[in-house]
Design goal:
By secondary structure, the protein is of the alpha/beta class. It folds into two domains: about 160 residues, FAD/NAD(P)-binding domain, CATH 3.50.50.60; about 190 residues, 3-Layer(bba) Sandwich (FAD/NAD(P)-binding domain), CATH 3.50.50. Helices cover about 40% and strands about 20% of the residues. The strands form five sheets. Strands 8-7-16-17-18-15-19 form a seven-stranded mixed beta sheet. A five-stranded parallel beta sheet has the order 10-2-1-14-20, covered by helices on one side. A three-stranded antiparallel beta sheet has the order 5-9-6, covered by helices on one side. A hairpin with a 4-residue loop joins strand 11 and strand 12. It starts with a strand and ends with a helix. It binds flavin-adenine dinucleotide. The site of flavin-adenine dinucleotide has 36 residues, from helix 1, strand 15, strand 19 and helix 19.
Amino acid sequence: MAAILGGGISGLSAAYYALDNPKIGSVVLFEASDRLGGWIRSNRSSTGAIFEQGPRTVRLAGLAGKNSLSLIESLNLSSKIVPIKKDHPGASNRMIYVNKKLHRLPSSGLDLFKIKTPFKRPLFTAIFNDLKAPFVQLEDDSLYNFTKRRLGQDIADNLISAITCGIYAGNAKELSVKTIMKSAFEAEQSGGTISKGILMKIFNKNIDSKETKKSNLITESNDFTKSSLMQQALHEKWVMWSLQGGLEHLPISLSNYLESKGISIQLNKKCEKLLFEKDFVILTVNGEVKKYKNVISSLPAKILANLLQEQHPQLAQELIAIPYVTVGVVNIEFSGNVLNQEAFGFLVPPKEEIPILGIIFDSCIIPQTNSTVLTVMMGGAWFNKYFGESPSKETLLSVATTAVRDILKIKLDPIAYKVSILKDCIPQPIVGHSQRVSRINDYISTRRIPLALCGSSYEGVGINDVILSAKQAVSNFG
Ligand SMILES: Cc1cc2nc3c(=O)[nH]c(=O)nc-3n(C[C@H](O)[C@H](O)[C@H](O)COP(=O)(O)OP(=O)(O)OC[C@H]3O[C@@H](n4cnc5c(N)ncnc54)[C@H](O)[C@@H]3O)c2cc1C
């Protein structure tokens, strides 16, 4: 019997994939809180509009995107999907706020040959930067240093730093290029420049990345092209998707499915300690000691560190070194359509020195009842700088409404709002992260510890990444 720790989307996915792995046997899932879904939480405003507190859209690209869509299909959620197609403004119009103005980012290949503010040159000229820039051999680098060195400071400051705020609520000067832009970094390190490295990779099949090997392992058992939902998504050029009624339908449907298959899901059960013996694992849950053959942890790395600190201090030290940031989320609703343009929203690069990370135009991406819903994200790597240790919700609301009024010129009073402070919600893959994750995995495998890891702390924070990480974790016991 195996225990799964944590009932966020990765823990639930691990339980789902475990159903297909006879070597795992029966499974029990422990969740510390009184609900499932972790950071995925869809609230309703007083008018019935959806206020997503955490994630709202899931990307379709890549193997991980296809894998999630296949999960949706097998849960019979296809009819609930809200696709966001390539030509939808929610996909094609993304903006950044620079020098007190909103600027539309390039959305097509042609745009790269035009001068688009705030840039003073067409972005394709970054190739010349790359070809001229000196080669530096490195184990890893910050995303900021790498893009400044290879593509130019304007791209590092305005584009990469803003995107990093949007995905990680993090600081590009601290985050790892080797983890986040692995292919570009590997191309530079093997070819001297990104451009030459990519060409070499195309012509030299011997340059095989770890990622490709992992992908092959997982795709072996899947043929996503047979999926009718995938066919539809490709045919209609979907870029992202969400779910009617909110993304929380995914963990809800997943847990209903798991319970229908006899998986025991236990709420209000806090995992407190792990002890690994020769042939079994002793897990303490709410003070009660239980024995299992294997454990799959989907807990944030720093929480797992506490559980195994006593027996494996070296492993705990590596886990606890993965930092997290806190994000303030303010959902605001206005009556009618008050936006003067349709878009995904905008991001703010940190050099602008304002206390928000960006604003998402939820009701443009996923149409709501007759109202405009916006989500203001704030804090992240700069939470303490702008808000201190424990700001009031009134402070966050005031910052959010000021940003909406000053930047989007919306002078009306909101008809509904919700303020949430998501403590330590996004792990930060800082410089050296990939090496740290390798050391963690090596420690576990060389000592044959019956523990597999999944979740947002290790291989990416997107919903797709964590679902795929759960599949991988389960296959470790296969
Ligand atoms: C504000 C925000 C916006 C986001 N937007 C997007 C987006 O648009 N698209 C996207 O793809 N991704 C997005 N993400 C990322 C994505 O939502 C997360 O990475 C993902 O939900 C993490 O899932 P998880 O299961 O790994 O972890 P979690 O959701 O953290 O789940 C871990 C679970 O473990 C439980 N737990 C903790 N301690 C214990 C214990 N001791 N014992 C038992 N259980 C315990 C927790 O209660 C929790 O339920 C966003 C994240 C945030 C915070």
